[in-house]
């Protein structure tokens, strides 16, 4: 399917590239006063894609892109798919012994060709026609579909330079979708501080009390009926878009697992953002890095899971230094993006009391993931072992559940340790001593004694 999409998109884009090449040639000839078959670039007829089944053709028709919009879109694509088409813009102006100012464009650090700027587009479309240039700047404004749907944007220009000197940037999603026919899965990096998380568990593995289960069901209900509530019932003008939750409780109590199950159950990708990592390593750049996450998530229905939320949303004292000022700016920025996000956002914290009260009032739901009680711990112990293993006769899961207060995650760690020790012995029978050693290790991690 991907190969078929790529082939069809390539056929459509080949036509579009040929058209662009004629437009560029026409503009340069008209600008230089050379002999030309056309009086205006608009006479160069754009390809007709009616009846074509490529994703690119469908995209053009769906948005009903006009001449200027198609030219801008193709200009954004060319550095990625056929950069040599812009080489004519690198010719030297014999009068100044340098490039032509009106062509715009810059040279990249690694890319040896032209990276088109806003000025490049205005030159191609309008030449020196001032009024037309004024009107064309609307294609870079926030209300245009290119910005609203994260198709392309004009990068901010360096301080003190004209805004049209910013580079035209095609979103990575559009590049992938309109070429290969599918979206890429972003990889965690300094520029994208989030990682896709999944689980092989299912709801039958969930061990929580009835109150917690009811609250989880509320989230599932919103994921299933939220859009119908907002748009079919017309409540979008009265209710906030999106759904915001706080999961709080000790580590290992299932906060991450629940987020993954919600994604698995509703066919949504779940991305975890470690705020402690973002703040400690990228202080001052947090807004830029978090923006990359929200921009990617906006139209993909991702569930965003912010781990270690205390790192930004913990209670604060008065601002005393630059670090505090940065932190307050980052909190304000993230709050706004969370408020504006139209999907599910989950923030996780070890303790609710660590969170700023002013922020917790913004949540639609707050779920306490407490340490499991003895009966719940017994169920977790019973589900924890591999089918190929067996328990030694002196192992009592009832005693383990009753005597050792552990989270579900800690129980699984203890079982994992005991199972490894069993494999090391070339055995399948898990010994009591190995299980107790695993339990002791978990207590030591938490600074507790058995």
UniProtKB/TrEMBL annotation:
Residues covered by the AAA+ ATPase domain: 241-373
Classification via Pfam families: AAA
CDD domains reported for this sequence: RecA-like_protease
Highest taxon listed in the record's lineage: Bacteria
Keywords for the protein's UniProt record, in alphabetical order: ATP-binding, Nucleotide-binding
UniProt GO MF annotations: ATP binding; ATP hydrolysis activity
Family: Belongs to the AAA ATPase family.
Name used for this protein in its record: ATPase family associated with various cellular activities (AAA)
């Amino acid at each position: 399917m991907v190969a078929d999409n790529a082939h069809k998109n390539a056929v459509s884009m080949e036509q579009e590239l040929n058209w662009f090449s004629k437009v560029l040639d026409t503009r340069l000839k008209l600008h230089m006063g050379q002999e030309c078959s056309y009086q205006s670039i608009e006479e160069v007829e754009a390809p007709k894609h009616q009846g074509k089944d490529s994703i690119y053709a469908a995209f053009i028709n769906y948005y009903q892109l006009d001449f200027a919009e198609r030219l801008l879109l193709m200009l954004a694509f060319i550095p990625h798919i056929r950069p040599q088409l812009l080489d004519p813009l690198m010719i030297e102006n014999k009068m100044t012994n340098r490039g032509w100012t009106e062509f715009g464009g810059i040279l990249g650090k690694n890319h040896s060709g032209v990276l088109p700027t806003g000025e490049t587009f205005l030159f191609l479309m309008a030449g020196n026609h001032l009024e037309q240039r004024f009107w064309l700047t609307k294609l870079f404004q926030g209300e245009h579909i290119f910005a609203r749907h994260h198709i392309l944007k004009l990068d901010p220009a360096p301080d003190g330079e004209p805004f049209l000197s910013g580079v035209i940037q095609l979103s990575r999603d559009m590049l992938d979708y309109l070429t290969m026919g599918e979206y890429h899965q972003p990889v965690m990096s300094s520029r994208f501080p989030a990682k896709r998380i999944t689980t092989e568990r299912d709801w039958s593995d969930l061990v929580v009390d009835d109150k917690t289960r009811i609250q989880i069901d509320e989230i599932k209900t919103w994921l299933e009926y939220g859009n119908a509530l907002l748009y079919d019932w017309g409540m979008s003008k009265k209710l906030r878009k999106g759904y915001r939750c706080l999961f709080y409780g000790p580590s290992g109590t299932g906060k991450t697992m629940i987020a993954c199950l919600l994604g698995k159950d509703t066919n949504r990708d779940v991305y975890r953002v470690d705020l402690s990592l973002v703040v400690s390593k990228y202080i001052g750049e947090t807004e830029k890095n978090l923006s990359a996450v929200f921009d990617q998530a906006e139209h993909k229905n991702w569930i965003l899971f912010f781990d270690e939320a205390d790192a930004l949303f913990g209670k604060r004292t008065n601002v005393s230094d630059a670090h505090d000022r940065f932190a307050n700016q980052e909190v304000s920025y993230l709050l706004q993006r969370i408020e504006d996000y139209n999907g599910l956002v989950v923030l996780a914290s070890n303790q609710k009391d660590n969170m700023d009260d002013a922020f917790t009032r913004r949540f639609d739901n707050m779920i306490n993931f407490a340490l499991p009680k003895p009966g719940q711990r017994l169920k977790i112990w019973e589900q924890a072992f591999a089918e190929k293993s067996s328990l030694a006769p002196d192992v009592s899961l009832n005693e383990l559940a009753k005597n050792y207060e552990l989270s579900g995650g800690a129980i699984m760690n203890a079982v994992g340790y005991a199972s490894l020790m069993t494999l090391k012995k070339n055995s399948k029978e898990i010994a009591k001593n190995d299980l107790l050693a695993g339990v002791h290790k978990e207590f030591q991690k938490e600074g507790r004694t058995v």
